[in-house]
Amino acid sequence: MIEKVSVGSEDIELVPQLTLDCVIFGFHDNVLKILLLKWKGTDLWSLPGGVIRQNESLDEAAIRVLKERTGMDKIFLRQFYTFGKVQRYDTNDIQKQLAHVIDPKLWYQRAISIGYYALVDYEEVFPNPDHLSDECAWWDLSDVPQLLFDHGEILEKALHALRLELSFQPIGLNLLPEKFTMPDMMRMYEAILGKKIDPRNFQKKILNSGIVVKLKEVKKGVAHKSPFLYKFEEKRYKEVLKEGGLFFI
Amino acid sequence: MIEKVSVGSEDIELVPQLTLDCVIFGFHDNVLKILLLKWKGTDLWSLPGGVIRQNESLDEAAIRVLKERTGMDKIFLRQFYTFGKVQRYDTNDIQKQLAHVIDPKLWYQRAISIGYYALVDYEEVFPNPDHLSDECAWWDLSDVPQLLFDHGEILEKALHALRLELSFQPIGLNLLPEKFTMPDMMRMYEAILGKKIDPRNFQKKILNSGIVVKLKEVKKGVAHKSPFLYKFEEKRYKEVLKEGGLFFI
DNA sequence: GCAAAAGTGTTAGGTTTACACCCATGC
DNA sequence: GCATGGGTGTAAACCTAACACTTTTGC
């Protein structure tokens, strides 16, 4: 197991057997997307992840990884689960597939991985591969390829957490751009919940709750009728979430 | 840091720097209770916890700890958060307080702790101290003493998770005895949510949902009017939770 | 008999659901 | 002008919240 890593000329001590994995969600073209890494010289994809340094907290480690992959500093991040089966995936199989990138000796011990999910404004992200991958790219949630390790399971659990927290966390604020249309927001809800919502009822409920304000602008340059733009009334949004949530079950 | 532990004549390898802590909830006399340990020769209390062996999963480790502390085998267990600040509590302070029980050298490295909460039927538990404590006892949630380490924060987060999951997990099934009265159940909700509920509205909603059935018995030997007994209609209860939850916000 | 807790119904207000047509725009 | 997506109202059903008195029991 790696217990040190070099950054410039410095050796940095790591917490042994502990890693973290990030599911980075974005929303674009009406669908949820996640950021994946393609391992060097392969067609194999996995979630971005990293190790924990002895002198940083778990959250700090996650922020560091997020910053490295997206270029972004202020990111909405939630720890959602820690994955700790003894044998989280088929070690021999992985060693064979990745032998040219990582020394198989690195797999002599199990690793426990802390799962984080992140929400980012798709438009502001510059995907950036790490030293073991040669591509970092957005994938539509609906056609994510088979993932390496147990990352399929990690993604499942992240989605589940996201669905649950949709009613209690300011998901919209972090996944939508500053100005957005009502259909944008509705489709974000639909994408996360995986079901259709009636647009009249959706609009009524959202406007009633007071969590958004209508701007005196419309979105231009789109085909068909120009939709109005809205932005979040942040204080009110958080109040509503705190006072019991905003449900579209 | 301990990296081995002896069980009988065997040495068991541990995952370094990783521990787990359990918040074990029970419900009795209309209040929520948790199980705490008193450290040998002190008046200091903490949550039950343990280490992770190399050959067991996190869940298995939690089950082992729960079994040791409560004597129970089948326990409702949820992992709710992993605590990983670099300096989770004042190490010097703790070393001084517990020097007579644990060699201060054990604290030379940080530890990351995985938080689990458990729900148990109060009546079925036999509290059992571990080798570092001389008492294992129930405490009313409302008068839990100052806890060692960062266990106060862990308890906070466990409670928060419990509140959130009350609407989606079969909490009642695990916290109440097999047969219970409507006021019992209502007070469980009140204790978890920390607020009063109207008994007429509560009963209406619970009975409408079909998650319990009224038995042809009353609870005898109680002062005042004998209340009817109910039991969960387990299949229906889980269906309702799955289809969007059962809220008393 | 009295104190304490159990049990129970109604009403008003609010929320949710279901449902369909016209409008503005780009091509 | 037509295809596409945006925008909007109403009525019925359902759910929630508010509210107080009678019953049973042990002491």
From TrEMBL, chains A, B:
Domain Nudix hydrolase intervals: 17-162
UniProt-listed InterPro entries: NUDIX_hydrolase-like_dom_sf, NUDIX_hydrolase_dom, WH-like_DNA-bd_sf, WH_DNA-bd_sf, WHD_NrtR
Top-level taxon in the UniProt lineage: Bacteria
Signal peptide positions (record): none
CDD domains from the UniProt entry: NUDIX_NadM_like
Coiled-coil portions: none
Name the record gives this protein: NUDIX domain-containing protein
